[in-house]
């Protein structure tokens, strides 16, 4: 750096210090615009405006980029018995359960696969649901992993209890593992769903 440049830099720093001090003495808010005015550069330096960020009230939260009132989000599509799509386009996989396949590349259509998908449709399609996370955010297919509720009823558990799904937990997402296993035991003992039709 040349001596002339150093000299200008020192003068600029001193002028900046004087401007900051003057604003402090007068009790004015120290902003870039106020500093430029104090130093005699008002209107000569234009800063780019910051984009407006929509405010989210304390009663809202964001699920996959979608702001939702009171933590509820709408189910827009049923993928199969244990997978749905929520508003915003994100796919969501129910935690702790596994339903028979409907279009698996190697397994094809499994026994009670269509029935499980249809029951899932009856329970949640077009409805607003509450989501609960365990440990993992998504699975390896980038689907959200959640427990899904309607009116306080966990849909994951209901599908198991009615014999449309197996309890199938994968660590570290095992918060309700015992609840789901108990529901499966009951469904099996009572011959519900695929326990009667497919065993």
Gist of the model:
With 199 residues, this protein is an alpha+beta fold. The chain is built from six helices and ten strands; from the N terminus they run ααββββββαβββαβαα.
Key terms:
single chain, about 200 residues, alpha+beta, 2 domains, 5-stranded mixed β-barrel, about 35% helix, rod-shaped
SSE string, helices as H and strands as E: HHEEEEEEHEEEHEHH
Looking at the overall shape, the CATH architecture of the largest domain is Beta Barrel
Report the span from N to C terminus.
Answer: 83 Å
User: What structural class should be given to the helix and strand makeup?
Assistant: alpha+beta
Describe it.
- The protein folds into two domains: 3-38; 60-197, OB fold (Dihydrolipoamide Acetyltransferase, E2P) (Beta Barrel), CATH 2.40.50.90.
- Helix content is 34%, strand content 22%.
- The chain is built from six helices and ten strands; from the N terminus they run H-H-E-E-E-E-E-E-H-E-E-E-H-E-H-H.
- The strands form three sheets. A five-stranded mixed barrel has the order 3-4-5-8-7. The chain has a two-stranded antiparallel sheet with strand order 1-2.
- Helix 4 runs parallel beside helix 5.
- It is rod-shaped, with a radius of gyration of 29 Å.
- Mean pLDDT is 81; it is low at 46-60.
Topology:
Layout: H1 3-26, H2 32-38, E1 60-63, E2 66-69, E3 72-80, E4 83-86, E5 91-94, E6 97-98, H3 113-124, E7 128-132, E8 144-150, E9 153-154, H4 155-161, E10 166-167, H5 177-189, H6 194-197
Parallel strand pairs: 5-8
Antiparallel strand pairs: 1-2, 3-4, 3-7, 4-5, 6-10, 7-8, 8-9
Helix pairs in contact: 4-5
């Amino acid at each position: 750096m040349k001596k002339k440049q150093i000299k200008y830099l020192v003068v600029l720093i001193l002028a900046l210090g004087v401007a900051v001090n003057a604003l402090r003495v007068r009790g004015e808010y120290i902003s870039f615009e106020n500093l430029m005015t104090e130093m005699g550069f008002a209107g000569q330096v234009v800063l780019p405006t910051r984009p407006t960020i929509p405010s989210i009230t304390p009663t809202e939260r964001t699920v996959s980029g979608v702001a939702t009132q009171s933590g509820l989000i709408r189910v827009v599509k049923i993928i199969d018995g244990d997978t749905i799509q929520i508003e915003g386009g994100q796919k969501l996989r129910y935690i702790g359960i596994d339903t028979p396949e409907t279009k698996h590349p190697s397994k094809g259509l499994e026994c009670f696969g269509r029935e499980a998908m249809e029951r899932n449709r009856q329970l949640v399609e077009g409805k607003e649901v509450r989501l609960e996370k365990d440990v993992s955010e998504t699975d390896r297919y980038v689907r959200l992993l959640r427990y899904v509720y309607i009116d306080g009823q966990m849909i994951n558990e209901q599908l198991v209890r009615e014999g449309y799904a197996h309890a199938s937990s994968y660590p570290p997402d095992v918060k309700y593992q015992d609840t789901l296993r108990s529901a499966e035991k009951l469904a099996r003992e009572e011959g519900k769903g695929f326990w009667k039709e497919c065993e």
